[in-house]
User: Fold this.
Amino acid sequence: MKFIFMVILLIFHWFAMKKIGEITSKKFNIKYFKKSVFLAPISIIFSLILIRTIGLSSQEAGFILGDVKEGFRSVCFIGLPLAIISGGLIFTIPKENLKEVKYGEKQVKWEFIYAWIFVGVVEEIIFRGFVQGTLDSMIDGHLFTFTSATIISSMVFVLIHIGNVLYKQETWKAFLSMIPTRLIAALVLGYSFQVSRSIIYSVIIHNLIDGLNMSALYFRKKAIRGKYEA
Assistant:
């Protein structure tokens, strides 16, 4: 019953933010990433309300310093290498396939602000603090080194990015092609939360991954445009 309640609250959060986003776009005529920056505090507040509603304590939701040693170990030895590798792989994507990804072209300032500062806080509170924290309080079990809660919350994290397709920031082809990398990233983020019991370190990793990927996309597309202009 608690799982169903969690899913209902998660869907409510998604629809509420979507509706607020649509109203904001029409009233103030601002686009996706600029809008995401301005809506970030609202999303965080909603997530905190969900955490309170589901009955999680601050500790269960990861609002603690946690195991500092394990946290920084996950950042330095798993998160940072993954961020560097994923950013580097951007430069191996064929030019024609880059057209499927709309990031790194317009509103670059707002893309960078959101990717380097806000995305980790916004998404980790909801997916690690709320979803994984709730699942941790409900289910046991492991698969290899990952808990069942880490695995399930990672799958939810991947599927929720269908919203990028609905907002026309990605095509279905791009979304499907990024499922493996997003799942790996989600497992790393979930594992960081799992071993540290704090969202601090998963926030750092998340910002590193998205920030480096966004930066790599921008500089790759800029280099391609420069060649065409030359």
About this structure: Residues 49 and 130 are 10 Å apart (CA to CA). The two ends are 61 Å apart (CA to CA). Residues 199-229 form the longest helix (31 residues). The chain has one domain: 2-229.
